[in-house]
What does this fold into?
Amino acid sequence: MEVVITNKIPTETIREIKEQLPSVTITQFETMSEAKETLESADALFLFGGGLTEHVISSAVNLKWVMTSSAGVETCRWTHLRNEELLLRNARGVHNVQMGEYALHAMLDHARKHKVSVEYQQNKRFENFKPGELYGKTLVILGTGAIAQAVAKRANVFGMRVLGINQSGRDVEHFDETYALQELFNVLPNADYIVNVLPSTPKTKQLINEESLSYMKPSAVFINFGREMLLMNKRSLKHLRNKQLNHAYLDVFEEEPLHEEHPLWGMDEVTITPHIAGYSSHYMERLLPIFVHNLRVFVEQEGEMKNIVNKSEGY
It folds into this structure.
């Protein structure tokens, strides 16, 4: 059984796997480009980042199982080219804590006017100003999955009203109300804060564009750490420049790294983080047990794998 991993995981973990599953051979690479040749004969792939192109997946003729280190699986969009039997699993549940905290950090940063405090300190200015608060504010979360529930749970503690958007409008724990995706434009005008955690699928890709931005009130704050959902063209940038949207906290972009000449860098209305919302010092300790469990099930053909992905739905 040959397993390819496109990252370096702890030596101790590799040793434990080999002790428990002696039939498994694990080969680690820094990038997918380095792994391509070995992947042609591999049975399983533990994927970190992208690089799983149409050519790579087509040449991996023995591949039976792919697990991603992310909750989103758009980097695995070519897996359907192999066959329906190719198993796809993700890292659902690994990112809940840190991404829930990222959303709360962004909202508190804005409500409490932290940037003003930083500016005052830099200018040695000791004057009062009036911060806001999250209590009583309305939060609209695009998505109601595990990460969205982590955000909603934390927002509940601050006394926020939490509305959720999902495909069907089904009720979900920690949300005061939920609505179907087609009701989005009716819900957005209520939002003081909008957090996007929807997966990138044909139905949701670039859902936030100049039209949806126009339904948000000028005082609203948009927080994006979902996939490349925000179509940042000239019209959507205009919404920010003209104060038709108060502020945007952006962690994920259509093209990464964000080019140094991109207009977003110079906008006071935007806070940029370099796709780090899902990272944490506890990341690997949450991720690796899922991988080891799934690998054991895959090798021994007993039990059930965790984090099944519906390839047709994209999550």
